[in-house]
């Protein structure tokens, strides 16, 4: 009885608080309830991407990285894995297409010993493996690489299970695919599009990398629609002290890492 | 002054059976030399002795005396495992032990005074450790092996003979405990010698003249002098348990029930010696007279019974035996237990036991060759890659990637990058494509799922290797951007002149 009385008093207090706030006629809406828990983010290691994603990939959620061939999605993914393993975290990669290239992973700066590489034979096996890895806990990132041609039809009933397992284990589940596959279960969706390949021209041209545009097409945790340019180049450049960088270098870097609404390549 | 201990297991065959089947404790139990009604009993439990069953009866005779008697045959494997367990218990206390066999182990107690307050405490610790392995052993401590053995046999439980008091303890003991030969026993009885004190008082030379070397050795033992000093031998790291089944098993659940007992005993032995269980080797004797040998990889070595059993279950479910199983042998590969100090600033990663079970489940779904950690092969071959068995314990406690040397936290200097290197998505196996060349330069590429004019190309880079073997290769590699927007890595096999795509830059 006393408990019920307490609840009634609490509800009446909330209602009066809402009425008093409404009387102030301030802009915005008044919501009663507890504030949502802040989502922990995993830094991708790339300044431009972290700025776009409010700090990195969200833990305990499904994030999609999509893009066509040579859009730079795998490079971005390896950068995320490298940053995670350098922090001492253990990551897992469910590689449906059997496309992971260990030399590229090592070149991205990842610690190979901290990566669990699973190559499932079928798509349903891949989903089951992903669920098992999420349920095991302890992995900072689990990647579901659907980047190549899919070996079967993707069933939708796996996504709520994967989301539940990711939330429970606080693991960031990143889905790599040519197009969006997780639908509304994805907390954010980052679509990459090749802007232009970078070639070192001359008598003997060399492929250096590419410049790609990353667009945040879906974001349940913030504002969608933002874009940025990522430069994927062979030589990995570290942040240099100010006295060693020339104006030209500074300009070029800032141009490539600034947001699209400032320097839209289109 | 030398101090020795003896760890002794009375009715050793009975103890070996009770260790394997602890649920038989408190029941009338007899251990026979073999199967069948004519097999002689080797040992009987106190409950069986109470109803009139004695050693040297046949199984049929014993069953006719006591209807509820449980008779178990003793196997050499069972005795061997029990003796090894006894040695493990002794080795966990002293590094200098001698395996005397037959349920007896001698220990040198020199230097152990710093670890135990008294010899009684040490002896109690020894008995407790044997009890942890399912062996209710007796312990004797004295100045010689003979005195310690007699103290262990006669005392029951733990008996410590203080230094210099061996004579008082041994003198009233019957000479039968020295196990003389039947002829010597008859002669000594005729002389009226009944106890060890009488025998030890005889002049050695006179005994030698009348009874020969055997008599001299017996008198020396009666005086508490050992035939030979304690010869310590290092104990092999061999952890094996086995069981012979009365009837063949062809279903998984009973097999796992038996396996659970074997693993329980194995992990107890490993834990006592300070080791943890690495891979498990299972040897199954099948009803078809064949053998099924298998190795169960333990990703994260541990002594956790539940995790090991789950791994064994997954393995047996994935690869069921071809026929019913008559006997089972399990061998554990010991691995050193590494103490780890976790880092305040680094995540702990997956729990080893849980990871092991997860990897085993992944192996069951994908196959063991498709789950592991990626490795770079030591080769110039561009498509070379490898995968190794997951061993997360090693990496879990290793240092993170070396930082730039400027201090700071792990990985300092590698965050906040502005670019990342381009990654290659491998195409496995390489996809055959049709390439149209002009002046030896690729101009147009056509294949399954890709087609386009070459917009920009770099190369060729000639790669040759292993020409001294059958697996030799000679290729010209190109990086080509096609009009479909993709940047591909192509190569021309110089031996067949065929073109392949083995990767896409993405």
Total domain modules of chain B: 5
Number of strands of chain B: 21
Order of helices and strands of chain A: HEHEEHEHEHEHEEEEH
Annotation, overall tally of beta strands of chain A:
10
The top-level CATH class of chain A is Alpha Beta
Written description of the protein model:
Chain A is α/β, with parallel strands linked by helices and 266 residues long. Chain A has helices at 2-23, 47-52, 73-86, 102-107, 123-136, 158-169, 247-257; strands at residues 41-42, 57-58, 62-67, 90-95, 115-118, 139-145, 172-177, 186-200, 206-219, 227-233. Chain A has 7 helices and 10 strands. In chain A, helix 5 packs parallel to helix 6. Chain A has one domain (41-257): P-loop containing nucleotide triphosphate hydrolases (Rossmann fold). Chain A has an 8-stranded mixed β-sheet with strand order 5-4-6-7-3-8-9-10, sandwiched between helices. In chain A, strands 1-2 form a two-stranded antiparallel ribbon. Chain A is globular and about 75 Å long. With 506 residues, chain B is of the alpha+beta class. Chain B folds into 5 domains: 4-166, 3-Layer(aba) Sandwich (MutS, DNA mismatch repair protein, domain I), CATH 3.40.1170.60; 171-222; 239-336, 2-Layer Sandwich (Dna Ligase, domain 1); 358-394, no CATH class; 424-505, no CATH class. Helices cover 31% and strands 29% of the residues of chain B. Chain B has 14 helices and 21 strands. Chain B has a 6-stranded antiparallel barrel. Chain B has a 5-stranded mixed β-sheet with strand order 5-6-1-7-8. In chain B, helix 4 (76-91) runs antiparallel to helix 5, helix 11 (252-273) runs antiparallel to helix 12 and helix 12 (305-318) packs parallel to helix 13 (352-366). The longest helix of chain B is centred in the middle third of the chain and has 22 residues, at 252-273. Chain B is elongated. At the A-B interface, helix 2, helix 3, helix 4, strand 5 and helix 5 of A face helix 13, strand 13, helix 14, strand 15 and strand 16 of B.
């Amino acid at each position: 009885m006393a408990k019920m009385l307490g609840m009634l008093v609490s509800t009446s207090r909330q209602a009066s608080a809402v009425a008093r706030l409404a009387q102030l006629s301030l802009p915005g809406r008044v919501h009663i309830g507890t504030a949502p828990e802040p989502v922990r983010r995993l830094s991708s290691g790339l300044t431009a991407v972290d700025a776009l994603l409010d700090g990195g990939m969200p833990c305990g959620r499904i994030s999609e990285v999509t893009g066509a061939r040579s859009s730079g999605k795998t490079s971005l993914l390896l950068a995320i894995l490298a940053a995670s393993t350098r922090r001492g975290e253990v990551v897992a990669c469910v590689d449906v297409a059997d496309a992971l290239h260990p030399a590229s992973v090592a070149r991205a700066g990842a610690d190979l010993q901290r990566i669990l590489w699973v190559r499932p034979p079928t798509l349903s096996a891949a989903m089951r493996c992903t669920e098992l890895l999420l349920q095991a806990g302890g992995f900072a990132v689990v990647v579901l690489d659907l980047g190549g041609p899919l070996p079967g039809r993707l069933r939708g009933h796996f996504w709520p299970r994967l989301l539940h397992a990711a939330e429970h284990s606080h693991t960031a589940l990143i889905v790599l695919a040519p197009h969006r596959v997780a639908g509304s279960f994805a907390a954010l969706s980052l679509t990459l599009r090749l802007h232009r390949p970078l070639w070192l021209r001359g008598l003997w041209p060399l492929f250096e990398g590419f410049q790609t545009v990353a667009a945040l097409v879906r974001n349940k945790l913030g504002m969608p629609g933002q874009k940025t340019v990522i430069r994927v180049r062979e030589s990995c450049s570290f942040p240099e002290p100010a006295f060693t960088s020339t104006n030209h270098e500074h300009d070029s870097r800032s141009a490539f890492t600034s947001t699209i609404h400032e320097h839209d390549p289109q | 002054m030398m101090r020795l201990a003896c760890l002794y297991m009375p009715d050793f065959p009975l103890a070996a059976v009770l260790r394997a089947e602890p649920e038989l404790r408190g029941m009338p139990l007899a251990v026979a030399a073999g199967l069948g009604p004519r097999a002689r009993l080797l040992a009987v439990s106190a409950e069986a002795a109470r109803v009139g069953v004695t050693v040297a009866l046949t199984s049929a005779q014993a069953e006719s005396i006591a209807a509820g008697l449980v008779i178990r045959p003793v196997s050499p494997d069972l005795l061997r495992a029990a003796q090894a367990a006894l040695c493990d218990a002794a080795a966990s206390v002293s590094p200098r032990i001698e395996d005397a066999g037959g349920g007896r182990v001698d220990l040198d107690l020199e230097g152990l005074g710093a670890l135990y307050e008294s010899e009684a405490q040490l002896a109690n610790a020894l008995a407790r450790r044997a009890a942890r392995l399912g062996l209710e052993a007796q312990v004797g401590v004295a100045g010689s092996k003979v005195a310690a053995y007699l103290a262990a046999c006669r005392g029951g439980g733990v008996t410590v003979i203080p230094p210099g008091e061996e004579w008082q303890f041994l003198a009233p003991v019957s000479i039968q405990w020295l196990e003389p030969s039947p002829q010597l026993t008859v002669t000594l009885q005729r002389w009226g010698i009944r106890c060890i004190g009488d025998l030890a008082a005889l002049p050695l030379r006179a005994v030698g003249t009348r009874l020969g070397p055997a008599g001299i050795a017996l008198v020396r033992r009666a005086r508490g002098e050992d035939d030979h000093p304690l010869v310590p031998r290092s104990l092999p790291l061999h952890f094996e348990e086995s069981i012979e089944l009365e009837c063949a098993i062809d279903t998984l659940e009973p097999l796992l029930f038996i396996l659970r007992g074997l693993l329980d005993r194995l992990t107890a032995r490993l834990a006592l010696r300070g080791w943890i269980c690495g891979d498990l080797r299972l040897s199954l004797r099948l009803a078809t007279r064949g053998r099924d040998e298998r190795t169960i990889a333990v990703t994260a070595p541990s002594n956790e019974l539940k995790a090991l059993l789950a791994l064994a279950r997954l393995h047996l479910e994935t690869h069921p035996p071809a026929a019913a199983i008559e006997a089972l042998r399990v061998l554990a590969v010991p691995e050193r237990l590494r103490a780890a100090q976790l880092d305040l600033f680094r995540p702990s990663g997956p729990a080893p036991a849980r990871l092991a079970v997860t990897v085993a489940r992944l192996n069951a779904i994908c196959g063991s060759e498709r789950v592991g950690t990626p490795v770079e092969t030591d080769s110039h071959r561009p498509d070379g890659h490898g995968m190794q068995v997951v061993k997360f314990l090693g990496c879990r406690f290793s240092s993170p990637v070396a930082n730039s040397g400027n201090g700071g936290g792990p990985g300092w200097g590698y965050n906040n990058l502005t670019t990342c290197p381009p990654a290659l998505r491998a195409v496995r196996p390489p996809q055959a494509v049709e390439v149209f060349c002009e002046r030896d330069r690729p101009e147009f590429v056509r294949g399954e799922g890709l087609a386009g004019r070459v917009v920009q190309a770099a190369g060729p880079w000639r790669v040759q290797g292993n020409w001294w073997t059958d697996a030799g290769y000679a290729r010209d590699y190109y990086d080509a951007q096609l009009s479909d927007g993709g940047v591909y890595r192509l190569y021309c096999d110089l031996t067949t002149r065929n073109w392949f795509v083995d990767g896409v830059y993405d």
